[in-house]
């Protein structure tokens, strides 16, 4: 069978979160109670209004094909919502709706990246970025997301040094997975200047844009002369706890829409219309659901960060957004890969090795606090017990 596989099939990676989840499930089948802090999924139910809206839409017959790039009324609602949120004007013909946010990432790269084009991406970062760049024939160029003061951010000087005459695209993701960092406005302004100077296309992954705790994130598309060179990736999974619904969208220059639409037609035809109508309900009437979720995440964040900083050899910044803590575990004297494995097998706490998000994530762990306060407290106790035994 191997001789039948295309070369590109071997360059696609996976997400470590799902690999760790599978191992955790195996342990659970053997009778071990595992605390899940590996998966990036809100533990809240989808809003009832959204569920009922989908049921009503199906009962009304919205179960057929629709326009490949999305329902016009859904695109209008998304454009209006995005305009208010990002303080920049969008119209429905700058919106593409997809089953989840990942297709926007994939199709944007397929449509824009030629073999040999260099793409700068955040590292540590969502592992799909590097995987897709490879698949499209591009050259991945990691820019470090580093611990700076009380935040994780990008050193603008280092970014500038990475730009070459082959650089075509820059990927940004803030609030950031896995660190919870947020770019300051002055950093974004410097990055925008570099993008304009070097004629770069930007993919701005903003799926966590409503999950922040202090300073509101700014979209780079809102800065002067950046909207026309920016593709915004967004969706409903994190904001409205709708991971299984698979509903996302892209905001992009209208000239790109026909190219993305052809990829959609050649792949899955369209996003189910009843799912899109449920998304309309979420945007129009469920903002309070998101607000309550973020309030609870803030409490959990504070408890988790305090607990992690009490552990021997751990140091953790307080995340500015998303729902992940990314502690530095270098002080334990144990590699992050070994530590993640042993914490799962010996303490029953599922975390992710920071190196799974790229080489600059080494010596860190990612822990999702999309779990209960009781689970967070128990997880800290279990890790503490493991560390105490290991140090004896």
Query: Can you tell me the CATH topology of the largest domain?
Result: Aspartate Aminotransferase, domain 2
What is the string of SSEs from the N terminus onward?
A: HEHHEHEHEEHEHEEEHHHEHEEEH
User: Could you tell me how far the N terminus lies from the C terminus, measured between alpha carbons in angstroms?
Assistant: 50 Å
What structural category arises from helix and sheet content? alpha/beta
Give me the side-by-side strand order of the main sheet.
2-9-8-7-6-3-4-5
Rg from alpha-carbon coordinates: 21 Å
Task: Report what the structure shows.
This protein is an alpha/beta fold and 392 residues long. The chain folds into two domains: 2-46 and 288-390, Aspartate Aminotransferase, domain 1, CATH 3.90.1150; 62-285, Type I PLP-dependent aspartate aminotransferase-like (Major domain) (Aspartate Aminotransferase, domain 2, 3-Layer(aba) Sandwich), CATH 3.40.640.10. It is built from twelve helices and 13 strands. The strands form three sheets. An eight-stranded mixed beta sheet has the order 2-9-8-7-6-3-4-5, with helices on both faces. The N and C termini lie far apart (50 Å).
């Amino acid at each position: 069978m191997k001789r039948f596989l295309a070369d590109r099939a071997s360059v696609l990676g996976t997400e470590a979160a799902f690999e760790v989840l599978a191992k955790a499930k195996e342990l659970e089948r053997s009778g071990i109670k595992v605390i899940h802090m590996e998966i990036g999924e809100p533990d809240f139910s989808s809003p009832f209004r959204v569920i009922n809206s989908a049921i009503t839409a199906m009962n009304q017959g919205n179960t057929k094909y629709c326009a490949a790039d999305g329902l016009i009324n859904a695109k209008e609602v998304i454009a209006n919502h995005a305009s208010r949120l990002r303080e920049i004007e969008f119209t429905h013909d700058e919106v593409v709706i997809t089953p989840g946010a990942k297709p926007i990432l994939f199709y944007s790269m397929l449509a824009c990246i030629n073999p040999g084009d260099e793409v700068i991406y955040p590292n540590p970062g969502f592992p799909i970025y590097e995987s897709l760049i490879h698949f499209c024939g591009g050259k991945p160029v990691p820019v470090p997301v580093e611990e700076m003061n009380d935040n994780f951010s990008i050193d603008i000087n280092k970014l500038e040094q990475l730009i070459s005459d082959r650089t075509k695209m820059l990927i940004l993701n803030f609030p950031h997975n896995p660190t919870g960092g947020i770019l300051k406005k002055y950093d974004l302004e410097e990055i925008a200047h570099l993008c304009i100077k070097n004629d770069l296309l930007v993919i701005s992954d903003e799926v966590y844009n409503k999950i922040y705790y202090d300073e509101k994130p700014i979209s780079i598309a809102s800065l002067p002369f950046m909207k026309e060179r920016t593709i915004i990736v967004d969706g409903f999974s994190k904001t409205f706890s709708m991971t299984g619904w698979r509903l996302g969208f892209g905001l992009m220059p209208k000239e790109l829409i026909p190219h993305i639409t052809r990829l959609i037609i050649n792949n899955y035809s369209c996003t189910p219309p009843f799912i899109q109508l449920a998304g309309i309900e979420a945007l129009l009437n469920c903002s309070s659901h998101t607000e309550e979720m973020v309030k609870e995440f803030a409490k959990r964040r504070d408890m988790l960060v305090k607990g992690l900083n009490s552990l021997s050899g751990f140091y953790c910044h307080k995340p500015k957004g998303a729902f992940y803590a990314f502690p530095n575990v270098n002080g334990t004297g144990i590699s992050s890969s070994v530590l993640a494995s042993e914490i799962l097998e010996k303490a029953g706490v599922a975390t992710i090795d920071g190196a799974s998000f790229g080489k600059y994530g080494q010596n860190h762990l990612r822990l999702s606090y999309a779990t209960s306060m009781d689970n967070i407290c128990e997880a800290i106790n279990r890790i503490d017990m493991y560390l105490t035994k290991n140090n004896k």
